[in-house]
Amino acid sequence: xxxxxxxxxxxxxNNNYTSQESKKKINGYASITEATENDISFCWYxxxxxxxxxxxxxxxxxxxxxxxxxxxxxxxLQKQILFVDDPxxxxxxxxxxxxxxxxxxxxxxxxxxxxxxKIGSNCYIGEYTIIRDNCVIGDNTTIGDRVTLLEDCSIGxxxxxxxxxxxxxxxxxxVRNSNGDIIKFPTSKGVKIGNNVDIFANSLIERGLLADTxxxxxxxxxxxxxxxxxxxxxxxxxxxxxxxxxxxxxIGDMCYLGINSTIKNNLKxxxxxxxxxxxxxxxxVEDNDIVAxxxxxxxxDKVKLSSTELFLMTG
Length: 315
What we know:
Elements: E1 3-4, H1 5-11, E2 17-19, E3 25-26, E4 28-29, E5 39-42, H2 47-56, E6 61-65, E7 80-84, H3 87-99, E8 106-107, E9 112-113, E10 118-119, E11 124-125, E12 130-131, E13 136-137, E14 142-143, E15 148-149, E16 153-155, E17 160-161, E18 166-169, E19 174-176, E20 182-184, E21 191-193, E22 198-199, E23 204-206, E24 213-215, E25 220-221, E26 226-227, E27 232-233, E28 238-239, E29 244-245, E30 250-251, E31 256-257, E32 262-263, E33 268-269, E34 274-275, E35 280-281, E36 290-292, E37 297-298, H4 307-314
Parallel strand pairs: 4-5, 5-6, 6-7, 8-11, 9-12, 10-13, 11-14, 12-15, 13-16, 14-17, 15-18, 16-21, 17-22, 18-23, 21-24, 22-25, 23-26, 24-27, 25-28, 26-29, 27-30, 28-31, 29-32, 30-33, 31-34, 32-35, 34-36
Antiparallel strand pairs: 1-3, 2-7, 19-20, 36-37
C-alpha cells in the first residue's frame, strides 16, 4: 500500500513541519542507512553527522530536525526532506499507521482460566496462558502466550503483556530466627496494573506482602525486568530491559530507568527522574534529577547533554 507522507502527517495531527520537496509516496520504512527510494526513514542527529547520513541515504523520505533547515537545501538531494520537532516520534507515528491491522481477540483453547477470573470485552488470551483466582482483566487487553497471572491480580484496559510474563508470583522475602533459620514472610496482597501498560517478554511483577504492588497508567516495562513486592511505579514511566526494582520502592511519574539499572529496596524516587544505564541506586532521588554510576550519584548539574547523548546514556 502506498502512502502520501504529507497527508499522513497531517492526518496524525503533526501540522508543525516544513518540507523541502514536492509530495512523494512511500510503501515501506527502514533505517537511514538501509532505506530505498520507496521507504521513509528518520535522522535524529544534528550537525555534520546528520548532513552526511542524509546526503548518503537512498531513502525517498527523511524526517529530520528543524535545526537542519537551511543546511539540507545546500545538498544535491533527490528526495523529500521533512523538518519536524521530533523526527523519532513522527517516524513512530507514521509506522504505527503503516503497521495497523485488526487486533486478535478471543481466548485460546489451551489457556487455563479460573472460574472466578473476570475478562473484559475485546480481549485476547494467548496459548497456554494461566489466569488464577480473583484476577480481573480490563477491556481491549492482550495477554500473550504462556503468561501467568496468579491470584488477586488486576490488569487495566488497553494493556499488552507479552509472552512469558509472570504477574503475582510470591516475593523473595525472608527473616532469620534466633537459630539462624530462614523464615518466609507471608504474602497477603496482589498486583494492580493500570490502563495502557505494556510489559515485555519474561518480566516478573511480584505480589505484595502487606500492600499491593502497583504499576501506574501508561507505564512501559521492558523485557526481563523484575519489580519486587510492595513497589509502586508511577504513571508514564519507562523501565528498560534487565532492570531490577527492589521491594517497597516508590517511583514517581514520568521516570526513566535505563537498561540494566538496579534500584535498592525501600527507596523513594521523585517525578521525572532519569536513571542511567547500569546505575545502582542506593539513596533516595529527588524530582527531576539525573543519576548515573555505581553507586549512583546526581549528574544533573555537572553535565549538559543533548537529546541524542541522553538517549545513548539511558539506553
